[in-house]
Each structure stands twice: as structure tokens, then as C-alpha cells.
Design brief:
Layout lengths: L1 H8 L1 H5 L6 H17 L1 H10 L1 H13 L2 H9 L3 H29 L5 H8 L1 H13 L5 H17 L25 H21 L13 H20 L1 H19 L3 H12 L2 H11 L4 H20 L8 H22 L13
Helix pairs in contact: 1-7, 1-9, 3-7, 3-16, 4-5, 4-7, 4-16, 5-7, 6-7, 6-10, 7-8, 7-16, 8-12, 8-15, 9-12, 11-15, 11-16, 11-17, 12-13, 12-14, 13-14, 13-17, 15-16
Length: about 350
Amino acid sequence: MSCFYILFRGVETVYRANEADLATIGIAIMLYNCIAFGLQMVFGSLADKHPKIEKLIGRVGLVFMLIPLAIIWISQTAIASWISLVICALLNAAFHVGGGMDVLKESNGKIAPSGIFVSSGALGVVTGTLYGKSEVGALLPIGVVLTASILLFLTAKTPSKEGTFTSNKPFPSIILTKHGVGIISACLFVAVFIRSYAGIIWPLGFEKIGFLVLLPAVSSCLGKALGGIIADKVGAMETAVASLALSIFLLFLAGDSWIITGISILLFNMAMPITLCGLAAAMPKHLGFAFGLSTFALLLGYMAYTQIAFNEISFINSKYIITILGIVAILLIALSLRSKTNRYVGKNS
């Protein structure tokens, strides 16, 4: 929420009046995404190797977000906007790596905590965008950051040196195939890439007006949270394959129904925490890198979209593109994860 408030209260406000500078706004969005998502692999690798960095990186990413928020509240000049944008992107990467590692290590092998952790980001994007475009002060995001910081320091434990994924007991929900860490990681990486790209081009048969502007974000949020919860109960592979298949089926039934569209988006996002925890299970000693690898795949999906952003894609064409990509994602996940009824746990190194 803070990051997208800064983006739209700052850079977008500066260049909005001049249509010739729309490309500059696009550059700003790409710069933010490259830093916030691309650097998580780097930060994650550093946190994996240095316990002191792991202990502090998430807290620094959260608390220090007050700095760019204060800058953009005081000044919306071009210089202030770019500076605050870069700082918030760096802090975003730090917060997600630190928080993601903490959640993975304290989740006792469950997928639900990671799904809940990543789910609210979709709500942050839409609320930050709307709040930034409203041209109001930064009091709300500052209040949210302060509240979250206080709660974190009151409740969070020091990250454990040995995470759940390094234990010898079988993972309750993530059961890997015998294909090896490299193949499994590559398959899950591509599956995340597909979800990112397909999610961006997902067709909406209705106009996003009123509360409907929140529908894609709310559906995405609920899907990621429910995906982890359901996967823990019925199995990761079963949940991912069934939800992706159902989402594609409903995509063709949706038409102009915002209800069916919302459900299809929800189902499509249920696989997200499953692929994340699958990467973590494949690389139990490198949880920070695994988390960053998943966000790097998201970044590549966005970058692939930008290649066709200036070309109109019809509603029916995007349906078929998503169908093909969805089938590929299902196959990749099936190559990576085994059914919960099969108790074999693949190599983890």
C-alpha cells in the first residue's frame, strides 16, 4: 500500500498532466518492479548466508518505510518522487524476504501461513493506487506502517536458525517428485511465471466501476489465502491442479458476469502459495533465495506482458492464451509435486 501510494502520489502525479510523458510513468513502474521483485533473490541469498541479516532485514524493510512516506508527504517534486520510489522499492524487497523467511521457518511445514502472508499484497496494490491518485496526505499509510511495526516488535520471535524445511520429518503438504531439485525448481519457476503473465492479461467482461474496481484484488487475495489452507487439508498437488483446471473452465463461462469472473480469478491464484512452498521444500537451506526466486518469476511475467502492452489483445484470444498456459502450468506442477496419498519425499538439498 505504501509503495503504490508513493508511486501514484509522486511520479504519476508529476507526469500525469503531460501525455507525452506517459512513457516516463511506465519507466517508473518498471524500475519499481525490477527493484522490489528482482532484488529479492539477492537479499534472500544474503539472508541465507548471514543470520544477522536475516534477523534484521524484514524489520528494516517495514519500519524504514516511514522515510519515503515522509519524503513524498512533504514534497511531490520530481526529485523527491524518484528518490522516495527507489527507497520504498528497496524496502519492499527487504520486508518481503525477511517476512517470507520468518513465515516459512515458523509454519511447521504448512502452506497456509505463507499463503496468508503473500495474499494481502494484492489489496495493498489497489488501495495504494486509489489512495495515491486521490492526492491526499500520507497519514493513512504512515499509520498502517506504525501499527504494523508496533505489532511486529511486540509479537515476533527471533528467527530460528534451523527452519522446519530442514527437519527430517515429512512435509505434511509438500511432497516432491523424484526428478531432482534442479528440474523441480525450474518447473515451479515457470509455473509462477505463467501465473504472473496470465493473471495480467486475464479478461474482464465487465467495466471496473464502483466497488468492482476492487474485485480482481479481492479475488486474488482470497485465492492465495484459501489455496494454502485447502492444500494443507487435501494436498498441494491436488489443490493446485484442480483449482487451475476449474479457473480455466469458469473463464469460458464468465461472459459479463463479475461473480463468475471473480471466482475464476480466485481459483487461478490458489496455486501461488503452493508453488512458493514447493520451491522452499526443494531448497530447504536456501529459503530466502527460494522466496526471491518466486518473485523474480513474477517480475519476468510482468516484463513479458510489457512487450505486448501497446498491442490490443481481444477477449477471446486472451482466453485461449490463458488456457494453453494454464495447461502447461498444470503439467509442470504435476511434474514437481506428488499426491498427498503418496508418502515419498524427494531429495531436499
